[in-house]
Amino acid sequence: MSAYEYEIFYEYEIFEIMMRYGGGFLLLCLLALAAYATSCPMLGLAAYNDARAKCNRNATMWGLLVGLLGLVFPGNLVAGIVYLCVRNSGQNRPVYCMNCRFPYAAQLPNCPQCGAPNPFGPPPYDVNAPLYAKRAKRDLIIGLVALGVFVLAIIGFFALFFSLAFELVGTEQFSSAYNEIYNEIYNDIYHEMY
Ligand SMILES: [Zn+2]
């Protein structure tokens, strides 16, 4: 083979490698995009439904916060963790009975000692709460699975990238280009020194 033929051959080899990987890159990009686009609204819905199940007055705010902050990764995860931290906080704080000063859990509607009504008690119980709890669980599972697929697609993307890099490094064209650059630099340094 002449030098020119070699060049054509190895150019083709690199072209062929790029073509082989191109589809994989595109597929993983689309998969990551679709998975992430699914996870954001699902996690937002999970937060909304969970808040509804807990009779939280700010359910819509939490749903929008978790859903929309997903536009800036990992805003939805941060908002989700903040929500998980505060979702039960209101129930655990103690209140003191106005009548007998007895301390009891804020989520109780009445004082367990004297029966006086709790003015800081929870909002009226929503009959649909179990339904919201069920939806919250379903949305959370879908959202987390989609997030998992997103992470796997990103890992796959990098794995493919390194595999491509290794294959390109292995080609004759790369090593000859590398040798050429190496020789040039070597000659430059050599000429400067002597
Ligand atoms: Zn009391």
Please provide a written account of the structure:
The protein is mainly α and 194 residues long. The chain has one domain. It has 6 helices and 2 strands; from the N terminus they run ααααββαα. The protein has helices at 3-53, 59-68, 75-86, 89-92, 129-169, 172-193, and strands at residues 94-96, 103-105. Strands 1-2 form a two-stranded antiparallel ribbon. Helix 1 runs antiparallel to helix 2, helix 1 packs antiparallel against helix 5 (129-169) and helix 2 (59-68) runs antiparallel to helix 3 (75-86). The relative contact order is 0.14. The chain binds zinc ion. Residues 97, 99-100, 102, 111, 113-114, 116 line the site of zinc ion.
Which quaternary structure do these chains form?
Answer: single chain
Distinct ligand kinds: zinc ion
User: In what range is the share of β-strand residues?
Assistant: under 5%
Mean pLDDT: 86
Number of domains: 1
Report the strand count.
2
Q: Helix segment count?
A: 6
Strand order of the largest sheet: 1-2
Structural class: mainly alpha
Largest sheet: 2 strands, antiparallel
Which helices and strands occur, and which strands form pairs?
Blueprint: H1 3-53, H2 59-68, H3 75-86, H4 89-92, E1 94-96, E2 103-105, H5 129-169, H6 172-193
Antiparallel strand pairs: 1-2
Bound molecules: zinc ion.
